[in-house]
Specification:
The protein is α+β, with helices and mostly antiparallel strands. Helices cover 34% and strands 27% of the residues. The protein is built from 13 helices and 17 strands. It binds adenosine monophosphate (AMP).
Length: 379
């Protein structure tokens, strides 16, 4: 029996563990919480991510370790990597968890990213704002997520306020990208350098959090090929093993990387029902040296995040083609507590099903934005 240790026990670990069960792969999750999201479906080892004793339990019982979020300290993972394979590697994590390192690395491969400058002082901040022109974005180098740790600078007079709110945290200043849309790419690579690539996904944010995704994103063959080329360059340069998520901006008909996440990703949740082999199963296959699965889409999908509170379940389940994923998390405003995926064999069918889903989910206000994007999926 294969056993995978996961550092972190959130909803991503939960979905990994659920995917693993079908293949006879067991997951152990290390998480400091009393009852983390993955605990009902995986063995839970309670301990901090820095606790080398707790990490050693993973070594004793598992053949390989992975992680479900990127804000784990690198040193304990290096400790782990001396005793067992850690996939993806701590080196990848070190790059991905620091926006400055990440952008330098990606730019070094000749892949476009927004222009950026290091911000370690008020003088740096002012100089960057002048060079990049306004508006520009200030982002903390570490621990930012869902738009947190970010400031939009619209006037030079705001530099002092933003600097004081940073409280000395190392940051970067980034040029404002007037993008047409946001897309993401999920790629999986194994230790023999085999790859599988999911079709591009189009993502729409609401209040800084991913609201919904459509897949396959309406796009040209040229753009899918451009995405594939940059994804392969990236994973090969990182000698990556597992699933990597790449968040991109589309601008002037080309792609630019916003950031990468060295793990399974919210914008890939549609793959559970909408692709032949899900991102979760493919990640487990990659890290356990099993053959990779088919990443092609089965049809057309829309994934809607459930944020804050659950709509009435009966109404959702009455919708055709809808799959409900409840993470069993305590509802709280702004918290992702589940997701809903609706799949269909045709764009026409998806149109009707997605509209019914939004109504049942009490998210009818999203329809005006979603409808034209579904229509664009044709052809
Ligand atoms: P991030 O935390 O880098 O993923 O950014 C969160 C969101 O802020 C993105 O999904 C974009 O909508 C927006 N954003 C980030 N960077 C830029 C940029 N350079 N220009 C314009 N919008 C951005």
């Amino acid at each position: 029996m294969r056993r995978v240790g996961i550092v972190g026990g959130g909803q991503l670990a939960r979905m990994l563990a659920l995917a693993g069960r079908r293949l006879g792969i067991r997951c152990d999750v290390l998480d400091p919480a009393e009852n983390p999201c993955a605990a009902p479906v995986a063995r839970h080892l309670r301990g901090s991510f820095e606790d080398t004793q707790a990490l050693d339990h993973l070594v004793a019982d598992c053949g390989v370790a992975t992680f479900d979020f990127e804000n784990v300290a690198v040193a304990p993972l290096q400790h782990l990597a001396q005793r067992m394979p850690v996939r993806p590697s701590p080196r990848v994590l070190a790059i991905a968890q620091d926006r400055l390192e990440e952008k330098r690395f990606i730019r070094g491969l000749g892949i476009p990213v927004a222009e950026f400058h290091t911000v370690d002082s008020l003088q740096d901040l002012r100089a960057a704002a002048v060079q990049l022109r306004l508006p520009c974005l200030i982002k903390t180098r570490r621990f930012g997520y869902d738009g947190k740790g970010q400031w939009k600078l619209t006037q030079l007079d705001d530099c002092e306020r933003v600097w004081s709110e940073l409280e000395g945290t190392p940051a970067i200043a980034e040029a404002w990208v007037p993008y047409r849309r946001e897309v993401s790419l999920i790629v999986v690579r194994d230790a023999q350098a085999n790859h599988r690539l999911y079709p591009l996904t189009e993502n729409h944010h609401v209040d800084g959090i991913l609201g919904y995704s459509l897949a396959p994103a309406p796009t040209s063959c040229e753009m899918q090929a451009e995405a594939e080329s940059l994804a392969f360059r990236l994973v090969d340069a990182l000698d990556y093993v597992g699933v990597l998520a790449i968040e991109l901006f589309e601008m002037d008909g080309h792609l630019m990387i916003n950031e990468i996440a060295p793990r399974v990703h919210n914008s890939g949740h549609w793959t559970i029902e909408g692709a032949h082999c899900s991102q979760f199963e493919n990640h487990l296959r990659a890290v356990t040296d099993l053959p990779l699965g088919d990443a092609a889409a089965r049809g057309y999908s829309v994934m809607l995040n459930v944020i804050g509170e659950w709509p009435e379940c009966e109404g959702l389940l009455a919708c055709a083609g809808v799959n409900v994923h409840d993470y069993e998390k305590t509802p709280r405003p702004g918290r992702k507590i589940g997701h809903l995926t609706v799949c269909a064999d045709s764009v026409e069918e998806l149109h009707g099903r997605a509209q019914a889903l939004l109504r049942a989910a009490g998210r009818g206000e999203l329809w005006a934005g979603l409808q034209p994007r579904i229509a664009a999926m044709v052809g």
